[in-house]
Specification:
This protein has 243 residues and is of the alpha/beta class. It folds into 2 domains: 88 residues, no CATH class; 119 residues, Glucose Oxidase, domain 1 (3-Layer(bba) Sandwich). Helix content is 40%, strand content 24%. Strand 5, helix 6 and strand 6 form a beta-alpha-beta unit. Helix 5 packs parallel to helix 6 and helix 7 packs antiparallel against helix 8.
């Protein structure tokens, strides 16, 4: 038993040594994004709260269509609710935002009062997939879920509905500040997503938040074998100082 615990502790230490980096102000955007892909969203949310006293995570009902994990700079799109008969022309800007997005971006779409409308479906997801976007987050709903699932394109939304935004919404801007599911998102802010949900890191705080999130990940992952060994979460919390 002691030998098994020792092996677990050694494996955990090796994992942390290999995955833990020390980000700094001179890190490139690409290296920061790679760092955020490796940390847990819960640690990112905790880091933002501990460093800045700020909620950085989106509402609980923003959920992934299928298991996923990604991070990338935001491309923001806002749609305003308005009934009209202009068809897809009124939404041209949201399509331009996809075609102009850099590979690795995260498409963040906000539909004003739009939970009963699908802001994204199979066609847009296909375009995002083949342009190399990292994923999409929709403050609203989605449709064409069999096609999106087949694509294996990562999408978070507040629901699934069969409706359309055509003739019900107008494009109101891209790469502008938006409030997505309770969190402000600006163009190029870093969006981090996994099965726990979605968090947003202001681009100017990225290095500091990543460093703190890595520290939180390190301490938590070190606690698992400790709890297994001593069979006590109370002792682990007292030893590592976190929960």
């Amino acid at each position: 038993m002691k030998k098994t615990i020792g092996i677990l502790l050694a494996a955990a230490s090796l994992f942390l040594l290999l995955s833990f980096r020390n980000p700094g102000e001179n890190d490139s955007p690409a290296s920061l994004i790679e760092g955020f892909r490796l940390v847990e969203v819960a640690s990112v949310a905790d880091a933002m709260e501990q460093l800045y006293g700020k909620r950085a995570y989106m509402s609980h009902d923003v959920r992934p269509l299928s298991p996923t994990k990604f991070a990338g700079p935001a491309v923001t799109v806002l749609l305003k609710k308005e009934e009209h008969h202009e068809g897809a022309r009124a939404l041209q800007g949201m399509l331009d935002a996809i075609d102009e997005a850099a590979p690795g971006s995260v498409y963040v779409m906000v539909l004003e009062d739009g939970v009963d409308y699908a802001g994204l479906g199979g066609l847009m997801s296909t375009a995002m997939k083949y342009r190399g976007l990292a994923g999409a987050v929709v403050d609203g709903s989605i449709r064409d879920t069999p096609q999106i699932t087949k694509l294996q394109f990562p999408v978070f939304s507040r629901g699934v509905v069969p409706s359309t935004t055509v003739n019900h919404f107008r494009f109101a801007g891209k790469d502008i500040p938006v409030t997505c599911a309770g969190v402000e998102v600006r163009a190029a802010d870093i969006v981090v997503a996994d099965m726990d949900g979605v968090a947003v890191v202001p681009r100017e705080h990225a290095a500091e938040v990543l460093k703190k999130a890595q520290q939180l990940d390190q301490s938590e992952h070190s606690m698992f074998p400790y709890i297994e060994k001593y069979k006590s979460i109370r002792e682990a919390v007292a030893r590592f100082g976190r929960l």
